[in-house]
Specification:
Strand content: 35-45%
Oligomer: single chain
Strand order of the largest sheet: 4-7-6-5-1-8
CATH superfamily: Hotdog Thioesterase
Order of helices and strands: EHEEEEEEHE
CATH architecture: Roll
Largest sheet: 6 strands, mixed
Number of strands: 8
């Protein structure tokens, strides 16, 4: 996985509360970093999440997360969270995540969301307008958030 595989990244600084006494980031915080990256990806794509209506009338629910740790991050470092949609199915999408410190890949990840009815949480098709936004965004020049 290379940084150049991604069209979008978002930078963040590791906060003191995210690290242990040795200054190493607790492993659970990387999922929060991935979530921040995905939120910023939606925003950059013009599909920002609204708590009442979901993503422009749609609602996505996380159903699977997977992180693989390669090297630790430390307090006060700047991390770049790279995000892309690797697969867009009928009612689900798979995000691929790469968390880097400069050129060093620290964590790889995968987050799968299902598009579903807000009440029943039953899968529904991903809207065509969202698919079009993804296609346009993923083929545009790289962006940093």
């Amino acid at each position: 996985m290379q940084r150049s595989d991604f069209r979008f990244s978002h930078s963040l600084r590791v906060r003191w509360a995210e690290a242990d006494l040795q200054g190493i980031v607790f492993n659970g915080h990387y999922l929060t970093y991935a979530d921040v990256g995905i939120t910023e990806y939606f925003r950059a794509m013009g599909q920002a999440y609204d708590a009442e209506t979901g993503v422009k009338g749609a609602d996505f629910f996380a159903v699977r997360t997977l992180l693989e740790y390669k090297s630790p991050a430390h307090f006060d470092e700047i991390l770049d969270v790279h995000v892309r949609i690797a697969r867009l199915g009928n009612s689900s999408m798979q995000f691929e995540i790469g968390i880097y410190r400069e050129d060093e890949l620290l964590v790889t990840g995968e987050v799968v969301y299902v598009h579903a009815d807000q009440q029943s949480r039953r899968p529904t098709p991903v809207p065509d307008s969202f698919r079009a936004a993804v296609r346009q965004f993923e083929t545009s020049p790289p962006q940093e958030g």
